[in-house]
Design goal:
It is globular and about 40 Å long. Strands 2, 4, 5, 6, 9, 10 and 11 form a seven-stranded mixed sheet that branches. The protein is mostly beta strands. Strand 4 and strand 5 form a beta hairpin. Helices cover 0% and strands 48% of the residues.
């Protein structure tokens, strides 16, 4: 069973950059596809980005493509989400998630393991 711990969330100004980290432990990191989701106040949790267990074919929620970049480092068992040109509507709690197997999906229900979340606030 894998445990996930997110970090890196903070208050940032519009147009700024932030990189979130998700450290995985307790399981074979290389056996899991990974994803980032986010949840804004009063809204449902939504997909942000995902990456396969081999680190290939990352994909993004349409509106985030070009601003967000997901990556993974098998040497440190860490998944990253780099967020550029941040906007106030990016304000949310960001969650890391893992699912066993090669394919990463956009569905919350497909992910078995979740971190506790890290708060990102974009405001001037």
């Amino acid at each position: 069973q894998v445990q996930l711990v997110e970090s890196g969330g903070e208050l940032v100004q519009p147009g700024g950059r932030l990189t979130l980290s998700c450290a995985a432990s307790g399981g074979a990191f290389g056996l899991y596809a990974m994803a980032w989701f986010r949840q804004a106040p009063g809204k449902e949790r939504e997909f942000a980005a995902a990456i396969t267990l081999k680190g290939g074919a990352p994909y993004y929620q349409g509106s985030l493509k070009g601003r967000f970049t997901i990556s993974r480092d098998s040497a440190t068992n860490t998944v990253y989400l780099q967020m550029d040109n941040l906007k106030p509507e990016d304000t949310a709690v960001y969650y890391c998630a893992a699912t066993p197997g090669p394919a990463a999906t956009m569905m919350v229900s497909d992910y078995d393991y979740w971190g506790q979340g890290t708060q990102v606030t974009v405001s001037s």
